[in-house]
Amino acid sequence: MTTDLRHLLTRTADIALRYLETSGERPVARGVSLEHLVAALGGPLPAGPTDSAQVIESLARGADVGLVVTNAGRYFGFVEGGVVPAALAADWLTSAWDQNPAFFALSPAGAAAEEVCRGWLCELFGLPETSSAGFTTGAQMANFAGLAVGVRHVLTAAGWDVEADGLFGAPEITVVVGEERHATVDRALRLLGFGKRHITAVAADDQGRMLAAALRDALGDGPVIVCAQAGNVNTGAFDPLREICGIAHQHGAWVHVDGAFGLWAAATPSLRHLVDGVGLADSWATDAHKWLNVPYDCGIVLCAHPGSHQAAMTLSAAYLTRTGSRDGTDWTPESSRRARAFAVWAALRSLGRTGVGNLVERCCAQARRFAEILSANDQVAILNDVVLNQVLVRIADDDERTRAVAAAVQASGVAWLSTTVRQGKTALRISVCDHATDDANIAAAAQAVLRAVAGNL
Q: Is residue 440 in some structural domain?
């Protein structure tokens, strides 16, 4: 390594460490426009080379005001995980190693990390130990992959050759989803060729759980795919997975579980009942960059039918070297990609089973504490049963007041939380998903909400 490169990477590490060391003091987000940031980072394309150290310094200065601090314990918007130290360090190594796990020949180490993580995740989630796994950008592509495998599997069972004939003229597939499924499920189905009129939505209860009794009536006579949910994006509620799988499999249906964050409830005995029956499904999607707290990005698709999984995803060409070992491209819609499994391996190895479980339990306890503090105010209503890490909060039973409180908290920089609309009512949507969140963070964020409610923020 040259002296210049060593200096560059050392200086970059200094900048990164300074950011991490001061992240607890920074506003979580700042009011800054796209135009301001483009001006700071933009200008004409340089006519010639620029010193690499100057480039990094310029990037750090220009981006600074537009950085959202999602990994310091005070970010409660969307479902954003923080970053555990071992995963951060492994991600730095991943960039330095620059491995492509598409084929074993390209990265034997990347292939091995994926295979080890596959086994660990099956054990952690209580899935069949022979389940296959692919590492994607996020739950969007994991849902897409799981549903794509399901399409091929049910059509093959119906005697249709998908590889030869595609979907034109194929037996019509009945796709059944819950009324409150995540938007990524609809987009995955759209990309697979299913329009809205070809999706049957089953009614949900007041917490967003699919009504299993209504599922039976929605199943057709031909090929069927059922998409269940582990962790409602608003309430955190879980579909009755055991019952759903039983009903669906009686009809020969494929069951896919969208468990972007909720699947991690399986890691702890106190919450495992929420995912009862999850191992009976056929495919699963989750995110490691949510509750496992690895750096962005990393989604995971798992499948109980490796043969169908590989057949749906694989590609071949004369120049592609295969050795009979694990080739990552067989398990995801992508070919060339980042070696995401190194960070997953590091997070799982550093935390272990009990560490993952403790992280999940701690976040859920903090979500309940957040709800308890807020509910003591007579202008605040908690709209959901806080069974996981999600809290829905409504202010004075008024949409405008609720949005105003969210805006005031965001502008304060003390914390960041978002809004949602559920069952026609606007609510603050609070998600606790960061290992760095402690009791002091919860107290500070809750007090910021209460000050905004009182008009004092």
A: no
CATH code at position 304: 3.40.640.10
Q: What is the mean pLDDT of residues 318-323?
A: 86
Residue 113 has pLDDT above 80, yes or no: yes
Return the structure tokens found at 419: 């809004």
3-state secondary structure 22-52: HCCCCCCCCCCCHHHHHHHHCCCCCCCCCCH
- Residue 224 confidence (pLDDT) above 80: yes
Q: Both 180 and 219 in a single domain?
A: yes
CB atoms within 10 A of CB 412: 18
Q: Are the C-beta atoms of 341 and 93 separated by less than 8 Å? A: no
Measured between alpha carbons, how far is 374 from 234 in angstroms, rounded to an integer? Answer: 17
Q: What is the pLDDT of residue 220?
A: 81
Local confidence band at 322 (pLDDT 50, 70, 90 cut-offs): confident
**What percent of the chain has pLDDT above 90?**
95
Tens digit of each residue's pLDDT (9 = 90 or more) over 358-387: 999 999 999 999 999 999 999 999 999 999
0.90 surpassed by pTM:
yes
Q: How many CB atoms lie within 10 A of CB 321?
A: 9
How far apart CA 340 and CA 91 sit, in angstroms, is 8
Half-sphere exposure of residue 132: CA atoms within 13 angstroms, side-chain side = 23
The DSSP result for 255-280, as a single string, is EEEE-TTGGGGGGSTTTGGGGTTGGG
CA-based nearest residue to 235, from 414, 388, 14: 388
Number of domains in the chain: 2
Identify the pLDDT of residue 228. 98
Cα–Cα distance, 64 to 359 (Å, whole number): 29
User: Last residue of some domain: 348, 378, 411?
Assistant: 348
- Asked if residue 79 belongs to a domain, the reply is no
Do residues 98 and 351 make contact, with C-beta atoms less than 8 angstroms apart? no
Range(s) of the domain holding residue 28: 3-69
